[in-house]
Design goal:
By secondary structure, the chain is α+β, with helices and mostly antiparallel strands. It contains 10 helices and 8 strands.
Length: 372
């Protein structure tokens, strides 16, 4: 027995168990007559199986594979976190303001302002300037970001005609026609793409009375031979398309109009509108040109006045432009862009809030703006 045990001293219990299973099946090279040690191991394994136990070792593979799977998933999560971290660092390096805005809550405030409902139409002159908003720089994608005009109406929708009633000697229908013609004039003079490109504002001129003394000739001269004193931008919004382009196709508009009686046989349409034009010089910079116009047009009774009955005459017009060069001798508005050399003379006048519609347009000269 000692020799048999010595000969098999290097064989494990598991190997002997496998030999015995093969022997029972009649295959393999298992010993024909197992040694006492083999019989002892076989008996021990049989007793463990009867108690529902399995010997440890190579049979525990599935549990190990499951653990390996958890290990791989964990490593993948770590790799994913590393990718996100690297991307985040790259974002901070390229555009740190995006991360700063999110941390400070500016991104959320910006989104709330963007989703806010449009302001109701003005029923008359406001009594105070618009509330302060968080100043923010406009972009090509959001040209009205950080501006009170963000909640203003888009384009012609901001020029609403009030309900017409008879005024003085003018019937309700005559008043309604005068209000609608005034609306069409404002659109043609300040929103029509051809006018904005610097072309002749033919649609606006067609509404004006050619019989009004001096005015048609003065307007024609301003368009053909503009000067600093007689410039078409006093009445028409025009940009030099060789230098600037509009950002998108939306112009923000806010204002009001009303009809009232003038002299006998005269109906006045009094208007006060502000137009916000986002412009770019071809790069990434955006500048908002803010134009406010207070214009009074009149409809005259041809029986009393030398007038064309279906045309309007200019009674009064004053304008104010913001974020543009002080000189407009060439008949165009020239936006001043950030980090660009100011165009024309340096401003010497008082600081003005261009969005404050509670004040009148007063004085002449070139001042500065308190917000853009």
């Amino acid at each position: 027995m000692g020799k048999n045990e010595d000969d098999r001293a290097g064989i494990s219990d598991e190997e002997w168990a496998r030999f015995m299973e093969q022997a029972a099946a009649g295959s393999g090279d298992a010993p024909k007559e197992p040694s006492a040690r083999a019989r002892m191991v076989t008996e021990r394994l049989r007793e463990e199986r009867s108690r529902g136990q399995e010997p440890p070792g190579w049979r525990t593979g599935p549990a190990w594979q499951e653990m390996q799977g958890r290990g791989r998933r964990k490593r993948r999560l770590k790799a994913f976190a590393a990718i996100v971290l690297v991307a985040g660092l790259a974002l901070i390096a390229v555009r740190p303001e995006l991360v700063i805005d999110r941390i400070t809550g500016k991104t959320e405030a910006r989104q709330q302002a963007k989703n806010a409902a449009p302001l109701p139409a003005e029923s008359g002159r406001p009594t105070a300037p618009p509330a302060a908003v968080d100043p923010d720089q406009p972009t090509l994608q959001e040209p009205f970001r950080g501006s009170p005009a963000l909640q203003w109406a888009d384009g012609a929708a901001g020029i609403e005609v009030p309900e017409a009633t008879a005024v003085g000697g003018m019937s309700k229908q005559q008043v309604a026609d005068a209000l609608e013609k005034t609306r069409q004039f404002l659109i043609a003079a300040n929103l029509d793409p051809a006018t904005l490109r610097g072309e002749r504002p033919a649609a606006a001129l067609a509404i004006l009375d050619p019989r009004q003394p001096e005015v048609p000739q003065r307007l024609e001269q301003s368009l053909t031979k503009p000067t600093a004193e007689n410039t078409p931008v006093l009445l028409f919004t025009r940009f030099d398309q060789a230098k600037v382009k509009p950002v998108g196709d939306v112009v923000k508009v806010r204002g009001s109009m009303r009809a009232e009686q003038g002299e006998p046989g005269e109906l006045l349409v009094v208007t006060d509108y502000t137009f916000v034009h986002p412009m770019t010089n071809g790069g990434t910079s955006v500048q908002r040109t803010i134009v406010r116009r207070q214009i009074t047009l009149s409809l005259l009774d041809p029986a009393r006045w030398a007038a064309t009955g279906d045309r309007l005459q200019l009674r009064k017009y004053v304008s104010e432009w913001s974020n543009v060069g002080c000189e407009t001798a060439d008949g165009f508005l020239h936006p001043d862009f950030p980090r660009a050399a100011p165009a024309g003379s340096a401003p010497t006048g008082p600081a003005v809030d261009p969005y404050d519609r509670s004040r009148d347009i007063e004085g002449e000269g070139c001042g500065t703006v308190t917000r853009s």
